[in-house]
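Recap slide: ABC transporter permease, sequence and predicted structure.
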Amino acid sequence: MAAVAASVFATFLGLLAITFFIGRVVPIDPVIAVVGDRAPKDVYEATRIALGLDRPLVEQFARYCLAVLSGDLGTSISTGNRVVDDLRHVFPATLEMATIGIVIGVGLGVPMGVWAAARQGSWIDQVIRVAGLLGYAVPAFWLGLVGLAVFYARLKWVGGPGRLDIAYDGLIEPVTGLLLVDSLLAGETEIFANALWHLALPCSVLGFFSLAYIARMTRSFLLDQLSQEFVVTARVKGVPEWKVVWKHAFRPILIPLVTVIGLSYAGLLEGSVMIETIFSWPGIGNYLTTALLNADMNAVLGATLVIGAVFIGINKLSDILYRVLDPRAA
C-alpha cells in the first residue's frame, strides 16, 4: 500500500510540474489576462508582483504546489469564482454522462466481443468488427451532429442540448450534482425522466466509442484464450460451448479487460470536450473550452489538473482490481 501511495504521489507531482510549465510556456500573459492590454505600466507591474511572477521559477513552482495541495487553484477570470468552486459545479455533469456512457460500452461491448470471438469468421463477427472500425474512424463531432439532426430535430426521440428543458432548470436543489440522483432524492420523477431524455443521445455517442474499443479488445483477448490447450481439452471432453467460452476462456481475460475498461472510462472523462461542446453540456470539457477561448489560464490549468488526477486515480484503481483478481500480481 505504501508503494502505491508513493507511486500516486510521484505521478501527481509530475502532473503538477507539467501543468505549471505549460502555464509558463503558452503565449498568453497572465498579467494582461487580468488587467487588460491597455493597463498602465505601473498597474501591470503591481499585478505581476501580486501574482508572484517576479519570483524565481523554482519558488513559483513551490508556491503553486502548496496552493494546489491546499485546494487553491486560483480565481477564474471568466466567471470571477474560485476555480475549485467552478470545477465542483461542472464536474458532476461530466461524471454523470461518462458513467452512463461506460455502462453502455461495457454492457454491450463485452458481450459483442465474446460473441464475435465465439463465432469467428461468421457474418456476426464481421458486423461487430465493422462496428468496431467505425468507432475508430467516425469523428465524434460528426456523429454527435448527425445524432442531433436525426434523433432530436427530425424524430424527436431524445432531448436536445443541455441537461434539462428550460422549464425544469433550477427546480432541483443540487446535492450530489448528478441530476438523475438529485431528482430521485427530491422525488421529482418528471425531472428524472427529462434528465434521462437529455442524457440519452450524448451518452449513446460516448457509449458507441467505448463499445467499439471494448468489443475489439474483448474479441482479441478471447481469441487468444480460445486457442489455448486447456480450452481444446475442455471441448474434447464434451463441455458445452457456452461453458467453454464463459467459464474457461472468459475468466482469464477479466484481468486485462479491467485495465481496458478503466482506461476507456478515464478516456470518456477526459475526452468528452467535443461532445460537451456539441450538446451544450455544462461539464468540465465545456468549461475547459470556454476557458481556453478566454485565455483564462487558472481555469485551464485547474481543469487539466483535475482531469489528470482523475486519470491517475482510475489507473491506480485498475491496478488494485488487477491485484484483487490475480493475487499473484501483487
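The chain has 14 helices and no strands.
Residues 2-69 form one domain.
(End of recap.)
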